[in-house]
């Protein structure tokens, strides 16, 4: 739990039009080379994304396991795996590591965002014990309690996907140590409907140009006294 509380925050916001996941990228040193590959956002399947807070090496094991489970389901039933079934499968694996001596729990929490034809857009949070729950908006990682309080105040039912992006970035700014947001310090992805369709979704990672616009908007908002 300490590894999770020290990790960069991750925020999830669900709307009728998609799920937005945003996370802080911890830059530990100016000498550290920033990789192109994402360290906080991962695609489990075309319709499911996950944000990570905690030990990345632990997260990679669970993410690879979930990707295999998703592909096995697709091969067997010729359709995408339901989001909650995939979440439950991963949480069962996490819970198993809490039962036996000689094993340590996985030191990672997840935010899952996805869509399926039965339940629409969904957002789940899971912790190292294997518990999970569905949310309309939530946060994990550093300063998650402050982020939760802001989400309770700012979240509005029926908000657009653009408003969800702005809210996720605004909440992330409140949890970070720095007062100025820059694209190099954040990651944002979303699971949204394909253009002109309501029966299929896509996973999309925001590019630096799009993040810069969101950062500028967040930086222009004066903090409340």
Cα shape? globular
Give the low-pLDDT segments: none
Order of helices and strands: HEEEEHHEEEEHHEEH
> Number of helical runs?
6
Q: Helix amount, in percent?
A: 25-40%
Average pLDDT figure: 89
Determine the strand fraction and express it as a percent band.
Answer: 25-35%
Radius of gyration: 17 Å
Report the count of strand segments: 10
Task: Considering the chains and any ligands shown, give keywords for the structure.
225 residues, alpha+beta, single chain, five-stranded antiparallel sheet, globular, 36% helix, 6 helices
Produce a short descriptive summary.
The chain is α+β, with helices and mostly antiparallel strands and 225 residues long.
List the helices and strands and how they pair.
Blueprint lengths: L1 H5 L3 E5 L3 E7 L16 E5 L2 E7 L1 H22 L5 H14 L11 E9 L3 E7 L5 E3 L2 E4 L3 H11 L6 H15 L10 E8 L7 E5 L2 H13 L5
Antiparallel strand pairs: 1-2, 1-8, 2-9, 3-4, 4-5, 5-6, 6-7, 9-10
Helix pairs in contact: 2-3, 4-5, 5-6
Can you describe this structure?
The chain has 225 residues and is an alpha+beta fold. Helix content is 36%, strand content 27%. It is built from 6 helices and 10 strands, in the order H-E-E-E-E-H-H-E-E-E-E-H-H-E-E-H. It has helices spanning 2-6, 56-77, 83-96, 144-154, 161-175, 208-220; strands at residues 10-14, 18-24, 41-45, 48-54, 108-116, 120-126, 132-134, 137-140, 186-193, 201-205. The chain has a 5-stranded antiparallel beta sheet with strand order 8-1-2-9-10. A 5-stranded antiparallel beta sheet has the order 3-4-5-6-7. Strand 3 and strand 4 (48-54) form a beta hairpin. The longest helix is centred in the first third of the chain and has 22 residues, at 56-77. The radius of gyration is 17 Å and the shape is globular. The protein starts with a helix and ends in a 5-residue tail after the last helix.
């Amino acid at each position: 739990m300490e590894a999770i509380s020290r990790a960069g925050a991750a925020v999830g916001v669900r709307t009728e039009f998609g799920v937005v996941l945003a996370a802080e990228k911890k830059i530990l040193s100016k000498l550290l080379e920033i990789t192109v590959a994402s360290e906080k956002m991962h695609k489990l399947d075309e319709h499911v994304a996950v944000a990570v807070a905690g030990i990345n090496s632990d997260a990679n094991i669970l993410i690879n396991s979930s990707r295999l489970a998703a592909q096995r389901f697709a091969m067997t039933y010729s359709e995408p795996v339901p989001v909650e079934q995939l979440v439950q499968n991963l949480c069962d694996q996490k819970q198993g590591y809490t039962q036996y001596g000689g094993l340590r729990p996985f030191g990672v929490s997840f935010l899952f965002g996805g869509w399926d034809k039965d339940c629409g857009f969904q957002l789940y949070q899971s912790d190292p014990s294997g518990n999970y729950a569905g949310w309309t908006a939530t946060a994990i990682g550093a300063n998650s309690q402050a982020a939760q309080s802001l989400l309770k105040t700012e979240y509005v039912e029926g908000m657009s996907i653009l408003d969800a992006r702005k809210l996720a970035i605004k909440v992330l700014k409140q949890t970070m140590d720095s007062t100025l947001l820059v694209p190099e310090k954040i990651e944002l992805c979303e699971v949204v409907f394909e253009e002109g369709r309501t029966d299929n979704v896509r996973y999309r990672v925001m590019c630096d140009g799009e993040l810069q616009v969101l950062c500028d908007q967040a930086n222009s908002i004066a903090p409340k006294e």
